[in-house]
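Per-record layout

source: Knoellia subterranea KCTC 19937
name: Phosphoribosylamine--glycine ligase
length: 426
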Amino acid sequence: MKVLVIGSGAREHAIVRSLTRDQAVDAVVAAPGNPGIDTLALCEPLADVTDGAAVVAIAQRHEVDLVVIGPEVPLVAGVADALRDSGFDVFGPSADAARLEGSKAFAKEVMSAAEVPTGLAHLATTLDEVADSMDALGAPFVIKDDGLAAGKGVVVTDDRDAALAHAEACLAKDGGRVVVEEFLDGPEVSLFVLSDGVTVLPLSPAQDFKRVADDDAGPNTGGMGAYCPLGWAPEDLTDELVRRVAQPTIDEMRRRGTPFVGVLFIGLAITSRGPRVIEFNARFGDPETQVVLARLLTPLGGLLKAAATGRLDDYDALRWSDDHAVTVVVASENYPGTPRTGDPIVGLDRIDSVPTAYALHAGTALDGDGALVSAGGRVLSVVATGADLAEARERAYAAVELVELDGSHHRSDIALRAARDEISVG
């Protein structure tokens, strides 16, 4: 089987890494990929991941058997549709189904129809409506851009002026809409559920860290680290989420004539009233994918092919390593603002000295001399596994210390509270 992976981040690097370890996968092509992916797969130039015709041309030229679309933007733009229309098997939802991520309001509509437990929410198109909704729901205020915002469209704050300022910026966009939500207490969980449009198959839950600084200080980012499994989560959590959230959502999407094929990313909070969905995404999350795939023993290529071709019911259960996994994101100076780029990255060749540790590339590039440099906000995801969370953390951070990138920063508390058994539910 030959697989084409669309995307250029650490999530795609993790997917490519797992695919190359599947004996049923003969070759992997990535477009556009990155310097790290280029060491594992053939990277093809792709100027615009939303250009369906260009993606189809690459798939045709390489005669691939499966296309895996990593990021949300090409999914919402309909790249999966263009590929399917050209006869390719695709792991990734249609543009209509990807609205679960593309519109927070649409996702809430589907949740309501499917009776999925979630927080109260109001859709607002004016600042006065936002203010009224904030008054109705109370602080902390949760203000979400209705559209795609690369994980940075949400503000959670007790500061009324800051909440209104974020809402005003969202509304200023063409067709701007804002969703004002009830604040949900309790620890957050990310669960990826594979779907072939009918059958759902859950992966291992993970937890990510969205804010830029230790102790969840500072602005939201695309994610600064993650770990799994979640030793503190209720044993029946995954089964409950499949029964109450994933299967009803997939059933509702099929009922609407827009079956969801790909991975449904369920972001939720385990509140004092039980699990409540915060949001849906239509693709693997970053950085959670890095730790989830680090533990998955079931070959990934066959699994994604089964989802793309309506055969997920061939799988009774997935196989997982008993190890724990941690990833720590190394970010550029000034991320998540306007990150500094073009700085040399040194020390990746030393990471092999740390047992189980490896680096996945996110915002990297080669300069004119062929040297590795930073090229984005989140530059690397450093991953390690261990017999327990403490060992996985120790190895991940030991590897991070070997990376030299001027001005870079990372959180020092990824998975720390979980390793200390300080997370409680209910």
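summary: The chain has a mean pLDDT of 95. DSSP finds 13 helices and 24 strands in the chain.
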